[in-house]
Design a protein that fits this description.
By secondary structure, the protein is of the alpha/beta class. Helices cover about 45% and strands about 15% of the residues. Helix 1 packs antiparallel against helix 2, helix 6 (about 115-125) packs parallel to helix 8 (about 150-170) and helix 11 (about 220-225) packs parallel to helix 12.
Length: about 300
């Protein structure tokens, strides 16, 4: 662009859409440049780690196979664990299978003041690496400790999450906080704390709908309340409290969730995260389950 060329607001949005700033800019400029509700559909690799472990194989050595099945299932992207992104050839595998890196997941010790700085430093170092891979979402789950955290510990945890979000900002990577069942105890006390005590500009929500339900929370109430904090999501379902082998109708009403997602502030990735447990009836290959799950997302979320 020459010095005599004026940059329009649309030009500005197009330039910054590659990172977190772009996602937020798209929301701010929505009245002028309407954005789709979803960025695409991705798959989390966790369930592949389960299936490969049954065969005495490590997912770290099998990403070519995993990414191939995800692409064949019709997905636009993949979310995986932070430990894999530094592997040699990781970027090449994404390109080979035409997948975008929709997010990276990591646990974190966030409630312990003595360990918080190390946690912040470790996660902050991921920012530049994710940026080079075209990824702008880091999903973290504060580690459970076998009991409810005290108010003081939750304060430290909130401060740690804010610090991580602030450290990632220069890399235009958004921190999305995830939950498992423990955070839903006592009317979702820790879940609410992770959002109510943090800066909305620094900490977003990874809406794991099934874990909210499984933990005893009301996903419809909580996701409606925090709709403007949702930055990404995980989709899985169960029937009668048992995880289904593929995403489909069940304990969670995903058509109702789709209505809630209409209120998200920024376009989000829809990430299918299958998981098998002992009671799960498995009648198909994982590749088939992944493809059927993608079909269900298309049916329910129209993408």
């Amino acid at each position: 662009m020459t010095s005599t060329t004026r940059m329009t607001r649309r030009d500005f949005a197009a330039q910054v859409l590659s990172g977190l700033a772009g996602v937020q800019a798209a929301a701010v400029l929505a009245a002028e440049t309407p954005s789709p509700r979803y960025r695409g559909v991705s798959a989390q690799t966790y369930v592949w780690s389960q299936v490969l472990a049954e065969k005495k194989l490590k997912i770290a050595d099998s990403l070519d196979l995993v990414f191939g099945e995800i692409h064949s299932g019709g997905y636009d992207g993949v979310e995986t664990m932070a430990e894999f992104v530094g592997q040699s050839g990781f970027r090449d595998l994404l390109a080979k299978h035409r997948l975008k890196l929709s997010g990276v997941y990591s646990g974190v010790v966030a409630h312990d003041k003595d360990k918080a700085k190390a946690a912040v430093d470790s996660l902050a170092q991921l920012g530049p690496r994710l940026k080079t891979l075209g990824c702008d979402v880091l999903v973290v789950n504060p580690n459970p400790i076998g009991r409810e955290k005290t108010d003081a510990e939750l304060d430290i945890q909130a401060q740690t999450l804010n610090a991580v979000g602030r450290a990632l900002r220069d890399s235009t990577v958004a921190l999305n906080v995830h939950c498992h069942a423990p955070e839903l105890r006592s009317n979702a006390r820790e879940f609410r704390s992770n959002l109510d005590r943090t800066d909305p500009a620094l900490v977003w929500l990874n809406a794991d709908v099934d874990w909210i339900k499984r933990g005893g929370g009301d996903p419809y109430e909580l996701l409606t309340r925090y709709a403007d904090r949702i930055g990404s999501c995980h989709l899985r379902n169960g029937v009668g409290g048992v995880w289904s082998e593929s995403l489909g109708d069940g304990d969670v009403d995903y058509r109702r969730i789709a209505k809630i997602f209409e209120k998200v502030k920024v376009p989000i990735w829809l990430t299918v995260e299958l998981a098998y447990e002992k009671q799960t009836a498995r009648t198909r290959s994982l590749a088939e389950d992944a493809a059927l799950s993608r079909k269900y997302v298309r049916e329910v979320f129209d993408i």
